[in-house]
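Support request, please re-run this one:
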Amino acid sequence: MKFAGLTGGIASGKTTVSRILENNSIPIIDADIIAREVVLPGRRAYQLIVKRFGSDVLLSDGNIDRPKLGSIIFADAEKRKMLNQCTHPYIRMEILRLFIYYWLTGQKVVVLDAPLLIESGLDRFVNVVIVVYCSEILQLHRLKARSGLSDVEATQRIRAQIPLSDKARRATYVIDNSGELEETERQVLELARKIQPSMARWLIEWMGPPVALAVVAGWAWYGVRRGVIEAVVKYGVENWLMGDMARDS
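Re-run finished. Output below.
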């Protein structure tokens, strides 16, 4: 099974590309969505957060007040460590569960959607890196149009990430999302064909249990020991707390 990493920048159009891939039957593991889901009311991570931080971090509807909790943990390394202890095990289990599930169901390609894929170093652990690119001027225009931010505010959010031009230089494939949606879709569909593994490789990995299990177990063990999954967790939780700053349109 080929494991692809998808990234971009705020307002670059990564979510659009992810949606096109998903609509064409390519499974997506979204680090941000997982980070949000594990802290929903009633979930174990949610209960631990309330126990450790108190009910002051809750909104009136019972959901966690992301800005308030974020202001606490980003100002205090120990509190941030405490939050990680509440959430990491559950995000880790969900990532591994999805990875193994997609392998067991015979998927040829799975995409890890991570806005900070390169910043977190996760690009080293995927087979291919896909970067969704547009110019910074276009990023700025899109971000202001969708969020109502000022020039200064929008620029600050864009500059908080590695420039897209730098990410593009580290990519295996670049999707240029500067034009019309139809052109972006054409590029994504062409890419989807390119990253499909050969039938021979897929059969070896899927039908050869020792080989496939070694791949999955090795990835899981190495990830846990060297911080691969922790990087997904860290940046997923931080993006969740910061709202959608790191996500694109």
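The chain has one domain: 2-241. The beta strands are 2-7, 28-30, 109-113, 128-133, 173-176.
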